[in-house]
Amino acid sequence: MGAPHGRGSSLRRTSFENKQQLSEKVAAYIREGIMVGQFRAGEYIRTERLAEELGVSPTPVREALMLLGSEGSVRWEPRRGYRVVPLTTRDVGDLFRVQAFIAGELAARAATELRDEELDLLEETQAKLEQAERDGDFDLVETLNYRIHRTINKASDSARLAVLLGVTVNYVPLGYYASIEGWSSASAHDHSSIFQALRARDPEGARKAMSAHIEHVGGQLVEHLRRREVLS
């Protein structure tokens, strides 16, 4: 049996006051907990204990665990509860290979759809991101990076494909990336080749540049998780 999840002051901060989609918020919290090693492979997640720590009723926690069970992150064991499934290097690699494929396709489609003024705004946002990276403002890097990718994905005019990308992104919550060594630097420097291809209206170049960027970030995450001894 694992140690209590809260671990005193180490319990990650998040808000569970809004009851809308509460189970999804709890699921996101547990997903991130698995990534950061708060919930270790083989550990049982105790519904009542976690509900108390998060200040919610047991119902959304149960719903979240059922959702995570369908994703393969936890496994139900009769009379014992939900147990964390080991996270492997292949799991993370597969996740980012899928992300790279979808994000690359969205960028390729956006290359012929983005207006000049949208490209100008993207480059202005990138300049702010690079300054934030130099300033060590990783929260701002995270916000601006999200804005850039969202703009490209939206410009692709492929809403359902973008939703599929969102499903894969949910496995690594947005707020987690800032803790990965080298991530902010990758966001500051990898984007230049993407923007060059978009400005040239080069779908294949945009696809390759975006895919390479996502795979680079995925590799950084694998190394980060290895250092934290999270991967099995």
Automatic annotation (TrEMBL):
InterPro entries: GntR_C (IPR011711), TF_FadR/GntR_C (IPR008920), Tscrpt_reg_HTH_GntR (IPR000524), WH-like_DNA-bd_sf (IPR036388), WH_DNA-bd_sf (IPR036390)
Lineage: superkingdom: Bacteria
Entry keyword set: DNA-binding, Transcription, Transcription regulation
SMART domains listed in its UniProt record: FCD, HTH_GNTR
A Pfam family annotated for this UniProt entry: FCD
Gene3D superfamilies with a match to the protein in the record: GntR ligand-binding domain-like, Winged helix-like DNA-binding domain superfamily/Winged helix DNA-binding domain
SUPFAM superfamilies tied to this protein: GntR ligand-binding domain-like, Winged helix' DNA-binding domain
Domain HTH gntR-type: 20-87
PANTHER family from the UniProt entry: GLUCONATE OPERON TRANSCRIPTIONAL REPRESSOR, TRANSCRIPTIONAL REGULATOR, GNTR FAMILY
Name under which the protein is recorded: GntR family transcriptional regulator
Species of provenance: Amycolatopsis tucumanensis
